[in-house]
Write a structure and sequence with these properties.
2 domains, about 300 residues, single chain, Rossmann fold, about 15% strand, 12 helices
């Protein structure tokens, strides 16, 4: 088997040795600059590991030997699943590896937003030490609306309860048992938006969730509410979000993901002071990355054994 790591993926020595024991290994440490370069990397591959590149139908069809795509991520959207099925290509992903990392980071953004941390940091660096402009808000007794109550959403709910927050949940497929265990209640989306002091998103990107939060939904939200997004940028209508932040309809946004990544230099979010932005790093801890690669490599081993797991 020819195994190709087509872009930058966290690999320890143990992972390299395991992959080398499974087949002939080629590792590319930087992402391809063009689709033609990606095709070239995949041309002879039986199995590819992909962390960031988009494997479109055209790219998948060009890889004539391809038998498996091992996605180094929780989401499956890096590969055209229909094209893979048509070509008899198995696609796997890594569910749940970053639950703790993303849930903790959600609160990093939430606390930074409620306490204006980025503005206070800038203030001090500019030589000022007047504390008066930075009156914040406590999380205790506030209502957190969680959209998407899978593993990460439920972990966020648990942490929120430790902060003594009230928690509302919305999910197309609710889990009443977990809600009761943790201490939150399910409501419809409009009710969640209307009653939440902060809304955090934990859904996968699908045709149903794309722009789930747009102008209409933001209008329903509390004046001065905060929005946190560590899921996928396209779940939020960025243009509507910018307008809401400019008008102070929303007081703050903590965004780890954007509609376009990397974003253009003229992204209007960059001009707003009531935002905390980061480059899609909620997953990015040493512990989570190691778990992700462990599972990614194990997915390949199981596929070669004829026992595929974690398929998309």
């Amino acid at each position: 088997m020819k195994i190709v790591v087509v872009d930058h993926v966290y690999l320890e020595e143990k992972h390299l040795k395991k992959l080398q024991s499974l087949g002939q290994l080629k590792v590319f440490k930087e992402p391809p600059e063009t689709s033609d370069e990606l095709k070239k990397r995949m041309k002879e591959a039986d199995i590819v590991i992909v962390g960031w590149s988009q494997l479109t139908k055209n790219i998948i069809d060009s890889a004539k030997n391809l038998k498996m795509i091992s996605i180094w991520a929780t989401t499956c959207h890096y590969a055209d699943l229909e094209a893979a099925r048509e070509g008899g290509v198995t696609v796997t992903h890594v569910p749940g590896y970053a639950t703790e990392s993303v849930a903790e980071y959600t609160f990093a953004l939430l606390l930074a937003s409620f306490r204006k941390l980025n503005l206070a940091d800038k203030h001090v660096r500019e030589g000022n030490f007047d504390w008066r402009p930075f009156g914040g808000r406590e999380l205790a007794e506030k209502t957190l609306g969680i959209i998407g109550t899978g593993t990460i959403g439920c972990r966020v709910a648990e942490i929120a309860r430790a902060f003594r927050m009230q928690v509302l949940g919305y999910d197309k497929y609710p889990n009443p048992k977990r809600a009761e265990e943790i201490g939150f209640r399910y409501v419809d989306l409009d009710t969640l938006l209307e009653n939440s002091d902060a809304v955090t998103l934990h859904v996968t990107l699908t045709s149903e969730t794309e722009r789930l939060i747009g102008k209409k939904e933001i209008a329903i939200m509390k004046n001065g509410a905060v929005i946190i997004n560590t899921s996928q940028g396209k779940v939020v209508d960025e243009e509507a979000l910018v307008e809401a932040l400019k008008s102070n309809k929303l007081s703050f946004a903590g965004l780890d993901v954007l509609e376009e990544e990397p974003p253009p230099k003229n992204n209007p979010l960059f001009k707003l002071s009531n935002t905390v932005l980061s480059p899609h790093i909620a997953f990015n801890t040493v512990e989570a990355e190691a778990r992700c690669t462990d599972m990614c490599v194990d997915n390949i081993a199981k596929f070669i054994e004829g026992k595929p797991q974690n398929t998309c």
